[in-house]
Amino acid sequence: MSRISKDEVKHVANLARLAITEEEATTFTKQLDDIITYAEQLNELDTTGVEPTTHVLDLKNVMRKDEPKKWITQDDALQNAPDKQDGQFKVPSVLE
Amino acid sequence: MSLFDYTLRELQEKLHNKEISVTDLVEESYKRIEEVDEEVQAFITLNKEAAKQKAAELDQERGNADAKLFGLPIGVKDNIVTKGLRTTAGSQFLSNFEEPLYDATVVNKLNDAKSVTIGKLNMDEFAMGSSNENSSYAAARNPWNTDYVPGGSSGGSAVAVAAGEVPYSLGSDTGGSIRQPAAYCGVVGLKPTYGRVSRFGLIAFASSLDQIGPITRNVEDNAFLLETIAGHDKMDSTSANVEVPKYTESLTGDVKGLKIAVPKEYLAEGVSTEVKEAVQAALKEYEKMGATWEEVSLPHSKYALSTYYLLSSSEASANLARFDGVRYGKRAEDAETMLDMFKRSRAEGFGDEVKRRIMLGTFALSSGYYDAYYKKAQQVRTLIKNDFEKVFEDYDVIIGPTTPTPAFKVGDKVDDPMTMYANDILTIPVNLAGVPGISIPCGFSGDGLPIGLQIIGKHFDEGTVYRAAHAFEQATEYHKQRPSLGGARS
């Protein structure tokens, strides 16, 4: 039984904002299915009541003062922009 | 003999005594790059003009050379941001990222210590890979035999040191990316405890696993470099506020009474005979020095690979969302809508492995699958971490191989993601547990390829790891071997 279908792969690619070709969808379906099938081995383990580890060190909510400070200028921020206009990043139409 | 056969401290002494100049060191570096880099492809971008200028400046102020890395030329992995010096993370997506706006904290520390940055080192794209073949520039090659991979993802960082292009470098390690290439290239590479070194300015792959660490020709240099880059950073709230010891002071040569654990899972099926024999010989060496070792079990080791790929890919899918073609990097041309622009920029800018992992991560985090894959993996991570903690109740260090085999041939595994992933089976658990681990040379295969010994320590106990590594190095000659690249030396 396959764990992931080609339609699901296309759906995931859309969620991940990746344009993929039909051919890529086929290859990725096979490869992702292999990886997910392998990862199902984790189900051999009973993890009832086991706390998930999100972070290995015992750190909780590191706080700092919310103070404005100088960082980079607007010009700096735009320096690597593929397209810009009037001091702002320029992108194609947002609405379809 | 190359200048880079001296230790960093010896080089500093020579600088101090005016036997050599900073310019000599920097020129040595570029001369060697000229000789061999076409063959080994360690560098993506060189910093030649600025480096030579800085060398000239430093030569003017020589004499008050008390800065820690004064005048010493270093290579930096290309996922560590350098102000005004192109930073690509091995990806086409960032091939035009010529003007990073700030320096990573580790780069600030290198600059404060007055080292000289020679260039940016090759890597698998966004640090995803174990062979350097996922670099979207030329794949780096193993200096011991250029038909073989150098390992990855910090392939360039290990190659540049092994090939004598720089005396030391920085890499990053998410699942073995410092230790595995260090093992394949016969150099010393340490992944520090998670939180030991600031990640500010490291282009994030998997934020709960990534660590920056040093790659060097010997243990002393490694400890020396970690002293310089470690420490709490207010720019990285996951960096630990734990005092940085003088690691070089722990290099006593004395391991009498050291208690070594050897996990049976690390010498099991899949580990080649040559590698096993090299590790067993190393354990004998430790016995001779008065250490003791016993077999132990890390029972959840076989689940580490699955756990790692689910967690690291999930984190990567979130981290790599920033590459959208709006603020920096490549943008697909002639997109009609913003959404189309996002999708096509990412499709054109990312290689297959990066796409595969973004999709795996997106899937694992998506509605309906989150508990089954992501949360499950986080729970298993706890079990893996507990395995280590339990062993460390009774032992000082854990020792095993760094990799199941020596380096493999270019092209051998590139078409099969699962076989490629299996390479990291002995390094991944260390990242999941967040403990420090080092790879040091411990032998050669019949084909003349280096074999790495992995020494793993408790959280923030890099000192003991270094002490054990250094004692072995003192007792053996493996770290003194050099590849006969470019016909320049043997």
UniProtKB/TrEMBL annotation, chain A:
What keywords is this UniProt entry annotated with?
Answer: ATP-binding, Ligase, Nucleotide-binding, Protein biosynthesis, Transferase
One MF term in the entry's GO annotations: transferase activity
User: Which InterPro entries does the record match to this protein?
Assistant: Asp/Glu-ADT_sf_sub_c, GatC
Ranges for the region named Disordered are 73-96
Q: Which HAMAP family match?
A: GatC
Q: What is this protein called in UniProt?
A: Aspartyl/glutamyl-tRNA(Asn/Gln) amidotransferase subunit C
Q: How does it assemble?
A: Heterotrimer of A, B and C subunits.
Q: Which GO terms describe its biological process?
A: glutaminyl-tRNAGln biosynthesis via transamidation; regulation of translational fidelity; translation
NCBIfam families in alphabetical order? gatC (TIGR00135)
UniProtKB/TrEMBL annotation, chain B:
Keywords for this protein: ATP-binding, Coiled coil, Ligase, Nucleotide-binding, Protein biosynthesis, Transferase
This entry carries the following GO cellular component terms, namely: glutamyl-tRNA(Gln) amidotransferase complex
Catalytic activity from the UniProt record: L-glutamyl-tRNA(Gln) + L-glutamine + ATP + H2O = L-glutaminyl-tRNA(Gln) + L-glutamate + ADP + phosphate + H(+)
Instruction: Output the superkingdom of the source species.
Output: Bacteria
What EC class is this?
ligase
Active-site residues from the entry: 77, 153, 177
The catalytic activity of this protein is classed by the Enzyme Commission as 6.3.5.7
Which segments does the entry list as coiled coil? 8-68
Is Nucleotide-binding tagged as a keyword? yes
Asked if Nucleotide-binding is a keyword of the record, the answer is yes
* An annotated Gene Ontology molecular function: ATP binding
Amidase domain sequence ranges = 24-465
Q: Which InterPro entries match?
A: Amidase, Amidase_CS, Amidase_dom, AS_sf, GatA
Any GO BP annotation: translation
Outline what the protein does: Allows the formation of correctly charged Gln-tRNA(Gln) through the transamidation of misacylated Glu-tRNA(Gln) in organisms which lack glutaminyl-tRNA synthetase. The reaction takes place in the presence of glutamine and ATP through an activated gamma-phospho-Glu-tRNA(Gln).
What is stated as this protein's family in its record? Belongs to the amidase family. GatA subfamily.
Assembly, in brief, is: Heterotrimer of A, B and C subunits.
Q: What is this protein called?
A: Glutamyl-tRNA(Gln) amidotransferase subunit A
Q: Which organism's genome codes for this protein?
A: Halobacillus dabanensis
